[in-house]
TrEMBL record:
Keywords: ATP-binding, Cytoplasm, Ligase, Nucleotide-binding, Pantothenate biosynthesis. Belongs to the pantothenate synthetase family. This is Pantothenate synthetase. (R)-pantoate binds at Q61, Q153. It comes from Rufibacter sediminis. The active site is at H37. Catalyzes the condensation of pantoate with beta-alanine in an ATP-dependent reaction via a pantoyl-adenylate intermediate. Pathway: Cofactor biosynthesis; (R)-pantothenate biosynthesis; (R)-pantothenate from (R)-pantoate and beta-alanine: step 1/1. Its main location: cytoplasm. InterPro entries: Cyt_trans-like, Pantoate_ligase, Pantoate_ligase_C, Rossmann-like_a/b/a_fold. The keyword Nucleotide-binding applies. The lineage of its organism: Bacteria, Pseudomonadati, Bacteroidota, Cytophagia, Cytophagales. One of its GO terms (molecular function) is pantoate-beta-alanine ligase activity. Beta-alanine binds at Q61. Pfam families: Pantoate_ligase.
Length: 279
């Protein structure tokens, strides 16, 4: 596996690959890799000539400095895993290298970012759009792979690709879960044993909400699910929403013809986790 940290090196190398007619599959990550990331990598590898993975904990998408400071950083182990999985190129720049020029451009995704993650993490999607745009320019992928776990992020990136005419295909893969249902996430590493034991209740609450919605209006079903979560003192719910799966706007009712997603964010101690379920 080749490893680059300099922007000019990755840019030159992917330029050469393009000239050779190679198809590039790209998986952007923030590292501390798990099976969710590796599933994306396997797909990128099997559907393209060359698989590129980036590992970069992007400072400008963190609204909470402590979350940035404590984000798991395991670059050596990540590189080993990627090599084992047949990744061709790892791009792992430093923050200084990536933001030698402080990014000044700002994005506004309208209603898409005024709900859920956008509403609770001011500046988050601006930071995501900034780094994803830079990465797309540097890596020049034909296909870029993302996870459904960050459902709103995927919608934002779809908008970004449309608005800026990036010539690539976006691919979204389903959520990979631990055997007890907890959505795999790098931040799970920060949970203490008690928090880790309670964490699967988040997915259970989505299943609970899903069941309630079969017979109960949204507001009441949400209330009952919030009460279910409130019975676990370790969990502090930030939001629980029933939304349109593409626009991410809250729905008044669940109907068969409207793609629907159940989304939540919650804290266990100071670790903030998100999860969702498509109906
Ligand atoms: N459990 C999962 N299943 C499928 N894809 C995932 C999963 N977890 C993360 N991804 C995807 O991997 C890509 C990189 O995500 P990222 O590096 O932020 O990992 P993460 O595990 O989501 O970390 P965290 O949520 O703690 O930031 C994103 O497209 C994300 O949606
Ligand atoms: C897309 C991404 C790599 C941008 O930093 C990040 O938001 C993530 O890992 O989902
Ligand atoms: N996986 C989403 C990146 C973030 O939480 O900042």
């Amino acid at each position: 596996m080749l490893q680059f940290s300099s922007l000019s090196d990755i840019r030159q190398h992917t330029e050469m690959l393009r000239q050779q007619g190679k198809r590039i599959g790209f998986v952007p990550t923030m590292g501390a890799l798990h099976e969710g990331h590796l599933t994306l990598l396997k797909a990128a590898k099997s559907q393209n000539d060359v698989a590129v993975c980036s590992v970069f904990v992007n400072p400008v998408q963190f609204n909470n400095p402590e979350d940035y400071r404590l984000y798991p950083r395991l670059l050596e182990k990540d590189a080993q895993l990627l090599d084992q999985e047949g990744c061709d190129i790892l791009f792992a720049p430093t923050a200084e290298e990536m933001y030698r020029q402080k990014a000044k451009l700002s994005f506004d995704f309208g209603d898409l970012e005024r709900v859920m993650e956008g509403a609770h993490r001011p500046g988050h999607f601006n930071g995501v759009a900034t780094v994803v745009s830079k990465l797309f320019h540097l890596v020049k992928p034909h296909q870029a792979y993302f996870g459904q776990k960050d459902l709103q992020q995927f919608a934002v990136i779809q908008q970004l690709v449309l608005d800026l005419s990036f010539d690539l295909e976006l691919v979204c893969y389903p959520i990979i879960r631990e055997t007890d249902g907890l959505a795999m996430s790098s931040r799970n590493r920060r949970l203490n044993p008690e928090q880790r034991a309670i964490a699967p209740r988040l997915y259970e609450s989505l299943q609970f909400l899903h069941d309630k919605l079969q017979t109960t209006p949204i507001a009441e079903a949400k209330k009952q699910t919030e009460a279910f979560l409130a019975s676990f003192s370790e969990i502090r719910l930030e939001y629980l929403e029933v939304v349109h799966a593409q626009t991410l706007q809250p729905l008044d009712e669940v109907t068969e013809d409207v793609p629907t997603a159940l989304c939540l964010a919650a804290y266990l101690g100071d670790v903030r986790l998100i999860d969702n379920m498509l109906l």
